[in-house]
Amino acid sequence: MNRWMIFLFLIMVACGSVEPIPVSDRTPLPVLDTPPSTSISPAPVPSATSALPTLPNAVSFPDPNNYQWQGWIPGLENPVDIQNAGDGSGRLFIVEQPGRIRIFANGQLLEPAFLDITDRVDDSASEMGLLGLAFHPDYEHNGYFYVNYTEAGGDTAIARYQVGADGNSADPNSEKKLLGVKQPFPNHNGGAVVFGPDGYLYLGLGDGGSGGDPFGNGQKLNTLLGKILRIDVDQGDPYLVPGDNPFGSEVWHYGLRNPWRLSFDHVTGDMFIADVGQGSWEEIDVAPAGQGGLNFGWNLFEGNHEYAGGSSSGITGAVAEY
Fold first, then answer.
1. Comparing 49 with 82, which gets the higher pLDDT?
2. Looking at the predicted structure, is the pLDDT value of residue 41 above 80?
3. Is 299 contained in some domain?
4. Do the beta carbons of residue 11 and residue 93 sit within 8 Å?
5. pLDDT at site 69
């Protein structure tokens, strides 16, 4: 169903050139082989006990009645992300969940779509589909861009495409798959795809779904689920794991439920993570620039509140929750 949108979304990425960091020998991580299911298990009831520091109250959002809201771009179908290619063109690239990327330029939504991969994207559940987009820091010269999508069968695919000669279209057959991750349930697929200030590609993957993280993936380091990943797409085939990744694998941070979006402060380089909560608390997490290996607590904690229970030792609490 087509719908218009009002969409304000900012990803701040510093894209300076970097020297390649020596890489360690990559040992592939096992991933969960449970086939996708449409059944959702009931979540445990969270505890009211708070074991992490209590945060100050957030500032209330201004009264929306004081603003006049206006439709901006009509004719879109389930828009979930919007990006700028950083090529000086001023074009906006809008991700539609069913599997298209559209270009908005000079006040118009261009036809045909920049990329159409609806033939390989599964958006049969509300948290599946084409979920994220990132342009290579050197996109103006190499034409590479990267997407996160749910493929037929329900698993996550991270893939690279290349723009065509006209600059306004990309060939679906240019796809190069970098990573596939088994998904046991049709929710919590994550979606974030962002280049960091260090030139590496960062990926947000959810805990695999159902409710309450029934397999404990958020706290397991032998699965890519419930993690922020960090890979070098300019070295190796299809990529290399940077030598300073904390666990010798793709994993950069863990203890996350569904890191739907992340961004970098363009001044400090700090990473901000928007992690979707279970039912009581949404949270914003922050990782200092260049620091990997943080545990953000899920499913022991939801926000800064005890959930499944456990020690708060070594857990990095949320900086904001609501």
1. 82
2. no
3. no
4. no
5. 85
Provide the pLDDT for residue 53.
64
Query: Are 304 and 54 a contacting pair, CB within 8 Å?
Result: yes
Residue found by looking up tokens 């299911």 in the block: 37
In total, how many domains does the chain have? 1
Tell which residue, 322, 302, 313, has the closest CA to residue 50. 302
Position 150 in a domain: yes
Strand partners, 104: 92, 109
**What six digits make up the tokens of 197?**
């200030």
Across the range 171-193, mean pLDDT stands at 95
Within a domain: residue 203?
Answer: yes
Query: Is the model's pLDDT at 301 over the cut of 50?
Result: yes
Name the residue among 313, 265, 315 with its Cα closest to residue 289: 265
Per-residue confidence (pLDDT) for residue 276, from 0 to 100: 95
Please give the backbone phi and psi of residue 139, each rounded to the nearest 5 degrees, phi first: -55, -35
For the chain, the residue count is 322
Sign of CA dihedral 127, 253, 202, 233: negative
Nearest CA to 230 out of 207, 257, 204, 255 is that of 204
CB 237 within 8 A of CB 69: no
* pLDDT tens digit sequence for 224-259: 999 999 999 999 999 999 999 999 999 999 999 999
Sequence-separated (6 or more) residues with CB below 8 Å from residue 55: 304, 318, 319, 320, 321
Measure the CA–CA gap between 227 and 211, rounded to whole angstroms: 17
Q: How far does Cα 38 stand from its chain's mean position? A: 22
CATH number (domain holding residue 116)? 2.120.10.30
Q: Give 60-100 pLDDT, tens digit per residue.
A: 778 888 888 888 999 999 999 999 999 999 999 999 999 99
- Give yes or no for a contact between 19 and 166, defined as CB atoms under 8 angstroms apart: no
Q: What range does the domain containing 249 cover? A: 76-260
Give the strands of the sheet with 227-231, arranged side by side: 193-195, 201-205, 227-231, 251-254
